[in-house]
Structures are given as C-alpha cells and as structure tokens.
Amino acid sequence: MTGKPDIRAFDFSQNPFIVIWEMTRSCALKCVHCRAEAIDARNPDELTTEQAFALFEEIRRFGKPLVVLTGGDPLRRPDAFRLVRYGSDLGLRMTMTPSGTPEVTFEALRKLKESGLARLAVSLDGSTPAIHDRFRRVEGSFEWTMRIIRWAGELGLPVQINTTVTRYNLQDLERFAELLRSIPIVLWSVFFLVPVGRGHLEDEISAEEYENVFNWMAELSEKSAFDIKSTEAPHYRRVLIQRRKRLGAPAAAGGLRHGSFSWQVPASGDRVGRAAQGVNDGNGFVFISHTGQIQPSGFLPLSAGNVKRDSLVEAYRHSPLFLRLRDASQLQGKCGACEYKSVCGGSRSRAYAVYGDCMAPEPYCVHVPRGYAVPPTRGG
Q: b/e for 321-338, b at 16 or more Cβ within 10 A?
C-alpha cells in the first residue's frame, strides 16, 4: 500500500478503522478463554465464498479499513487464500489470525503473502510451553506458534502477537516481554479478558492489577522496538494520558486527543498502520460473525442485523445499537461521569458480560472521576 488510506476512514461515526470477520468457528485448539467456544466442525451456515466476496465489496464502501480474518481458525476454510486475494485486490488491508497448529505450514504462509496478506497475527500467552499450552489446552501449541513466527520472519511477513492477560499468566508478563524482545514483531496487542464463551469471571485479574499492568505496559512501550496496544481495555488510554501529564508532556501526545486522527505507518515497512484515536466496541470497530451477524465486537453478543440480508454500512452508521454505543452521554455510573470518557469509555463488552448492560460502567477500573462520590471499588 502506498500513500494514505481513504480519508473517510477517519470519521468513526461513519466508518470503522477495523472490521473483523469470524470466517469459521472450527479450530483444533480448546483455549480456556475462547469467546467463540470453538469446535472442530464447521457450521454449514457460514458465509459462502460468494457471500464473502459481497461482504468485502460492502466493506470497501467504508474506504480502506483494516480487515482482520479470524476464527476459530480461518485457515480451516479452503477458500482462505482466494478471500485474501479478493480483499487485497479491492484495496483492503488484509490481516489474518490463524491458530497455532500444524495446519499452518510454510507453504500456507507463503501463499498468504503472495495473496496480499499485509500482516499475520498469532496468539502467544506465555513465555514457556507449559504456560501457553495450558492456556490453549493442546500440547505442542507453543512450539507450533514459535515456528509460525520464525517462518513469517523468513518470508518477510510482518507479525503481530496477541496475548490475553488472565490469572493464568499475570505473573509471567516480565518473562514474556523478554521473549518478545528476542523475536521480530511489529505489534504486541495485549487483550484483557472478557468473561464470555469459555472465559470465566474468576479468571479475571483485579482492577488494581489492571492498573499495574497498564503502567507496566506504558513503561515497556518507552523502551521496546515494537508497538504495544491494549484490546478490550480502553482505560489504558487514560493511564497513558495521566502519565504524560505527570511527565509534563501534552495530553494529546501519541494521538490520544479525541477527534484527532493521523495515519501512522511503522518504520518496519508494515503496511497496516494504526489509527491515532483508539477504537472501542461499535466505535471504529465492527465484527461479523461466522453466520453473518453484525456485532459491535466479538465479545459483545448483540446484533444489528445480518450481512446476508442487511447492509453492513447502514447497520454500522445508523442502527440504534451502534449509535447508542457511540454516544458517550449514555454511559452510566462513573464511566458517564468520567472526564476521560471521550477517549476511553470503558469496555462495553465487559460491562455487558458482567452486568448485562452494554452501557454500564467498566467493571475493572480504579479511577474515580472528579467529584464522583462512590469509592473506587469494582463496578463503582
């Protein structure tokens, strides 16, 4: 990709920065936190190849958003390479998150790159096979994942690492960071557990531990060669702003100013880039399930329609669900009172999973808004 993406992509009320399509829920892994509760068999109601082509054409109406092909394991679809090529030929920035299994071969990665894949994302959740494989519940997954990373490096395919922070690996993060420094990656996406699917509330870390991890991530980002972002933890942005204020830096540093956008392309040559404004569920972000449901996130099981019969563009721009999620004035509790709600807003998925209300306050945030009377307990 050359130059800047379509300017339309910068207005999150009209166009998402990220579109995720869950190609299938079929997967060989049995991960303890899997939001999709993936199984071995494919669902006959998955989008067909032709329906997927039509979906990509609809996505192109948004401009050139980042498209993430996920699952389950997207490589379990025999048309995966054709789909990457079709989206890439349309001008979309195509990325994929295959599962760490022997099904990902060097030849498969080569074909993905030749088909136009811009970045490969793989999940790695521990610094050792014991930690990672326990998380993925399949012995050998750690070694397979490391092999995929090595092969991608040999092919010149940029690699992103996805890690979900839970009680299973909280104490391993320092060692894990050392492992990441030893491998060539462009981005570490640190997911924070949303207790849906196989994920359980008891696997969550505490609000105080969230805050500690956020500050550790911020310190790590200042000395790491790779970029670091949070996923389903928008309150990390609040921590970054607070840290910059304490250091005397402008609060808008790093592209965090609400309503301010810039196109950021890493010096590594990675073609994906980052949106300067953070996305949130339904705000710069839209998810299409394996059967075509249009959702604000894969972690938020509320639907605004189905791409088999409804327009994705119209659902994202005008559906009551998406409009509500983008309206910060409808946030409840301390999220509604928070001075950082325009750049944070809390995880709407986690609020729904814990309280059954997508506009409820973020359950794992220690921050108390100015003038807010409730003490900083979980869910305040």
A: bbeebbebeebebbbbbb
- The candidate with the shortest Cα–Cα distance to 27, out of 14, 36, 17, 18, is 36
Pick the closest to residue 157 from 270, 1, 273, 71 (CA basis): 270
Q: What angle do CA 290, 295, 296 make, to 5 degrees?
A: 135
Query: Is the Cα torsion angle 186, 192, 194, 199 positive or negative in sign?
Result: positive
* Closest C-alpha among 62, 60, 58, 88 to residue 8: 62
Locate 314 and state its tokens: 């119209």
Retrieve residue 44's tokens.
């006959």
Per-residue pLDDT of the chain (380 residues; tens, 9 = 90+): 344 444 444 689 999 999 999 999 998 877 777 766 667 778 899 999 999 999 999 999 999 999 999 998 999 999 999 999 999 999 999 999 999 999 999 999 999 999 999 999 999 999 999 999 888 888 999 999 999 999 999 999 999 999 999 999 999 999 999 999 999 999 999 999 999 878 789 999 999 999 999 999 999 999 999 999 999 999 999 999 999 988 876 654 344 433 222 223 333 445 555 555 779 999 999 999 999 999 999 999 999 999 999 999 999 999 999 999 999 999 999 999 999 999 999 999 999 999 999 999 999 999 999 888 765 444 44
Beta strands in 113-214, from DSSP E residues, in sequence order:
119-123, 159-165, 187-192
Task: List the one residue out of 64, 61, 66, 75 whose CA is nearest residue 23.
Answer: 75
Give the separation between CA 155 and CA 157, rounded to whole angstroms. 5
Burial of 356 (0-12, 13-18, 19+ CB in 10 A): exposed
Burial of 139 (0-12, 13-18, 19+ CB in 10 A): exposed
